[in-house]
Amino acid sequence: MRCPFCAHAETQVVETRESDEGDVVRRRRRCQGCEKRFTTYERAEIALPMVIKKDGSRADFDPAKVRASMMLALRKRPVSTEQVESAIERIQEQLLAVGSKELASTKIGELVMRELKRIDKVAYVRFASVYRSFEDIDEFRQLIREI
């Protein structure tokens, strides 16, 4: 690890601690060049698949976009933030389980719909009506019958 102060290549780890949850390691280091101390944090990097959008472009998976979509569908519904966060975690776990480097955005939309159906039927219908771009009332009725 290079020193952020003098860019010296050699540093010594003085102290190591894990976070309470055990998912981050904090290390205090001392530069062997300038003797200044600094802190580094180490955490596991999870490689979620790239999202292939409908237009063919690619983007990194962004849980904030999923959260925003879900929160819009859940607006004024009795669903806690913890339930939403748990749903997003389940979606990410499913994306990791696929094992693919790329994934169509439609697959993510289906996962979101499955989670919304699980936690709030009204939000599911709201999301599905926009996501599936219903053209007429019959498509909407069919979705409600499925529930």
Automatic annotation (TrEMBL):
GO molecular function list: ATP binding; DNA binding; zinc ion binding
Zinc fingers typed unnamed, residue spans: 3-34
Cofactor note: Binds 1 zinc ion.
Keyword annotations: ATP-binding, DNA-binding, Metal-binding, Nucleotide-binding, Repressor, Transcription, Transcription regulation, Zinc, Zinc-finger
GO biological process: negative regulation of DNA-templated transcription
InterPro entries: ATP-cone_dom, NrdR-like_N, RNR_NrdR-like
Keyword check for Translocase: no
UniProt keyword annotation of Transcription regulation present: yes
Highest rank taxon of the organism: Bacteria
Role summary: Negatively regulates transcription of bacterial ribonucleotide reductase nrd genes and operons by binding to NrdR-boxes.
Name of the featured protein: Transcriptional repressor NrdR
Organism from which the protein derives: Inhella proteolytica
